[in-house]
Amino acid sequence: MHVDAPSAESGLRVAGGVTGYRRRTFELLRSTIAATGGVAEAVDVGAGDGWMSKTLMDDGLIGRCIPVDVVRRRQVVVEPMLYDGAHLPMESSSVDLVYAVDAVHHAANPVALLAEMARVSRRFIALKDHTYSTRAGAWMLRLLDEVGNRRFSIGSPGHYQRRFEWLEALRSQGFAVRKLVHPARCHTGALGALTNGLQFVALLERVHGE
Predict the structure, then answer these.
(1) Which of 43, 23, 47 is nearest to 102 (CA)?
(2) 75: number of Cβ within 10 Å
(3) Per-residue b/e over 35-55, b at no fewer than 16 CB within 10 Å?
(4) Is 3.40.50.150 the CATH number for 20-206?
(5) Which burial class, exposed, middle or buried, applies to 24 when counting CB atoms under 10 A from its CB (0-12, 13-18, 19+)?
(6) Cα four-point dihedral sign 159, 86, 75, 39
(7) For the chain, which has fewer Cβ within 10 Å, the N-terminal or C-terminal residue?
(8) Which tens digits make up the pLDDT trace of 107-160?
(9) Are 178 and 35 in contact (CB under 8 A)?
(10) What is the gyration radius of the CA atoms in the chain, in angstroms?
């Protein structure tokens, strides 16, 4: 599910509100999706309140965006389609783009969810999520996840990507990396210096296996 920055990022407003973290994350995602040239239809996995879906449609990068999530938030910008967290309720190769922002690490089985995203996408997958290579990095991600998700009662199982093993999993599904932003500047100041190396954004394109 999409989450906003912890309290160190001021100005939080839920249900479509924009924090510094959310705005910077959106700009990174928008520039990544812009590399596709725009798509007719997309699925937003773990859409939260739907703000990303709506803003990408308003910007004209996506013609129609279907937000899906495992629970409905109290306040939403776009009504989500609910699913079981494991099987996306779409036909295979049915949309141009499937993307997820800070969502895959919440899955019970992240690699299985990535395989579902690959099944549904006929061409592109975009990911904004986390990566770590040390115990200290994993500990920092757990701390940020707990603080950022507590108010939404969202569990933080800590299924973070070690290095870039998720991208390797998607390569095995027939996708190639077209763009990778790492570190991704989601935070500023001291928090950014500590944690931007744990953030990444990637765009992958199907090269075979459809």
Answers:
(1) 47
(2) 11
(3) ebeebeebbbbbbbbbbbbbb
(4) yes
(5) buried
(6) positive
(7) C
(8) 999 999 999 999 999 999 999 999 999 999 888 888 887 766 555 556 677 789
(9) yes
(10) 16
